Amino acid sequence: MRKARAPASSKSPPVSAKRKTAASKKMVGGLEDISAQVQVRRHPGARRLTLRISRTSRSVIVTIPVQCDLDEAGTFLSRHIDWVRERLDSLPDPVPFRDSAAMPLRGEPHKIVFTGAPGTRIVSVVAVAGHRPEIRVPGSLDTAPRRLRDWLFEEARRDLGKRVAHHTTALNLKAKRIAVRDQTSRWGSCSTTSILSFSWRLILAPPHILDYVAAHEVAHLAEMNHGPRFWALVAKADPDYAAAKTWLQIYGHDLHRYGASIDGASEA
Ligand SMILES: [Zn+2]
């Protein structure tokens, strides 16, 4: 994941009690108008305080050395609050699952429509002349976001299942099963027990992107590394893999906007 260049303390300067109070007050005032979660992490390897913004979870992460106390983290954060606010403002807006929201599906723009129609729970994609196709979610409006999410998971599972089957056959490998998850740190992974896991958000990307990630994880069934033999297998399965890899680097983080809550509950 790309990390924003962040301020770091050269040393953690001792702060007098008086200054500390002033700083905490300022921090509270400053944090009231930032719409992000702040996470403080104590890290044994950290030698100084650092600050970063997670683009995927839209949260502020302060890493502090073990011996630092929380007040110091607060002081540090408040000192860099303008930087934090600027970075948060530059992030694209999150798009929660709601009626009329625009969202890509298999790389094409769609419109989410919560119809509220009773009697059915079946989500459907409907072409609309002159407009974006609609993803229509019937039933209770309260549970519509949840049902849309479940439907997207199923669609992802189906497409990934097909592509994994295709690549395992082509490369003569065997996957035990596939799992689709809400994971933000990786697009896919392969366990030593041959279980392939994928992010559901791949269903939002163009099909050749999902296909590349499927081929990538299938290739890990033979090579649990990113060495030349691994990449040769990926190239065999997906000759255009380099373009897909670049696409993910440039546009991948944008997919994390969809279905994200404003609070940013999950972590990168
Ligand atoms: Zn890999």
Please give the structural blueprint.
Blueprint: H1 17-32, E1 37-43, E2 50-54, E3 59-65, H2 70-79, H3 81-90, E4 102-105, E5 108-114, E6 124-126, E7 134-137, H4 144-171, E8 177-181, E9 188-190, E10 195-199, H5 207-220, H6 228-237, H7 241-251
Parallel strand pairs: 1-3, 5-7, 8-10
Antiparallel strand pairs: 2-3, 4-5, 6-7, 9-10
Helix pairs in contact: 1-2, 4-5, 5-6
The site of zinc ion (ZN) has 3 residues, from helix 5.
Q: Could you list some keywords that capture this structure?
A:
disordered C terminus, 268 residues, binds zinc ion, 4-stranded mixed β-sheet, 37% helix, disordered N terminus, 3-stranded mixed β-sheet, Zincin-like, 19% strand, alpha/beta
Describe this entry's structure for a reader.
By secondary structure, the protein is of the alpha/beta class. Helix content is 37%, strand content 19%. The chain has 2 domains: 74 residues, no CATH class; 156 residues, Zincin-like (2-Layer Sandwich). The strands form 3 sheets. Strands 4-5-7-6 form a 4-stranded mixed β-sheet. The chain has a 3-stranded mixed β-sheet with strand order 1-3-2, with helices on one face. The longest helix has 28 residues. The protein binds zinc ion (ZN). The site of zinc ion has 3 residues, from helix 5.
Tally of helical segments:
7
- CATH class type of the largest domain: Alpha Beta
Topology, number of strands:
10
The residue fraction in helices comes out at: 25-40%
Describe the sheet with the most strands.
4 strands, mixed
- Radius of gyration using CA atoms only: 22 Å
Query: Quick one: CATH superfamily of the largest domain?
Result: Metalloproteases ("zincins"), catalytic domain
Query: Which structural class matches the secondary elements?
Result: alpha/beta
CATH architect. name of the largest domain:
2-Layer Sandwich
In sequence order, what are the helices and strands, one letter per element? HEEEHHEEEEHEEEHHH
N→C terminal distance: 8 Å
Instruction: Look at the structure and give the mean pLDDT.
Output: 85
Strand order of the largest sheet: 4-5-7-6
- According to CATH, the fold-level topology of the largest domain is Zincin-like
Bound ligand species: zinc ion
User: Quick one: overall form?
Assistant: globular
| Count of discrete structural domains | 2
Low-pLDDT residue intervals, each spanning 5 or more residues: 1-5, 10-30, 262-268
Q: Strand-residue fraction?
A: 15-25%
